[in-house]
Amino acid sequence: MIDGDDIAACAALVQRGDPGRFRATMSAPVPMRRILFPLYAFNLEVARAPWVTKESLIAEMRLQWWRDALEEIRNGGPVRRHEVVTPLALVLDAQAATDLDTLVEARRADIEGTQPDDFGQILRYVDATAGGLLWTAARLVGTGAEGPVRAAGRAQGLAAYLSAVPDLTARGRHPLPQGDKFAAMRALAEMGLTALAQARKDRPKGQKRAVMSVMAGVDHVLRRVQADPQAALDGPVTQGVFRNALGFSITALTGRF
Length: 257
Known about the structure:
- Helices cover 70% and strands 0% of the residues.
- It is an all-alpha fold and 257 residues long.
- The longest helix is centred in the middle third of the chain and has 25 residues.
- The relative contact order is 0.11.
């Protein structure tokens, strides 16, 4: 049985570090929150690992720690005591542990910081991270078909990636392939919109659509980048507080994104 203190700790982590997913999870029924908060807290901790130190070896060790924890969960034996790992072990099955291991492995790219060779490399990254996370969340609560959910994850991941480009560039990274940066931004936004169109063909219904509430605003970000990639390179695309709240409410209530 999941300890209430562990869930509260996971919820607090998500609230501080990932307010969009926190708000989406709070729109879900309580039993679903017990699945989603540990999952999203895990994702947050893994996403942070490459950035909390400038020492690549230490960052690698942090990611390996999470891979080892997932291996314990997958094997079904004793699992280390940790405020995130302990409740996570109670909600993951072997398939989820395997998919999340792929997510952790993909985050090694954030340590290496190498410039992507092409768009395919970026797509593989967002598919493994945002796509893998969204599909794991959806599958664990019984929501949707894999194809459309992974497509939604790709769209969400590309929106987040494009929004992060200005910050990554300021940190001395090169998040886009060599060549015309404006064209690259627009092309990635168009790939995201194509994935979003595929995802919209099979939107989850009922209470389980709360998992997809994280998609609020994705369409807006992608269209803004497509329309003005130069502005998107100058600073992250944001919706504004009112538009963001309105978009979330519509998605949470209707399942439309």
